[in-house]
Design the sequence.
């Protein structure tokens, strides 16, 4: 690894520690999400492997979870959604 790559990686990890969220492969992101991540400084590309990583902020995850809850509520009884949201397993 070169020193520039090391510095970029440390900055990327520090951003995760400060802003919270999750690091995902850029292969799992849309081109729009990658463009936003690049513009916001939340994209890291390893110079040696050319693999890309995106920092998905905590707000992104929370928004995605809310969309899942809404979808579940429209398709299932409410008590099942509440169990999913709380992390409690469904009772037999």
Sequence:
């Amino acid at each position: 690894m070169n020193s520039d790559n090391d510095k970029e990686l440390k900055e990327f990890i520090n951003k995760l520690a400060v802003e919270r969220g999750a690091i995902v492969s850029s292969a799992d992101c849309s081109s729009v999400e990658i463009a936003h991540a690049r513009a916001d400084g939340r994209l890291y590309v390893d110079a040696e492997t050319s693999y890309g990583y995106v920092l998905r902020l905590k707000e992104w995850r929370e928004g995605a979870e809310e969309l899942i809850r809404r979808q579940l509520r429209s398709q299932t009884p409410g008590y099942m959604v509440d169990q999913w949201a709380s992390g409690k397993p469904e009772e037999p």
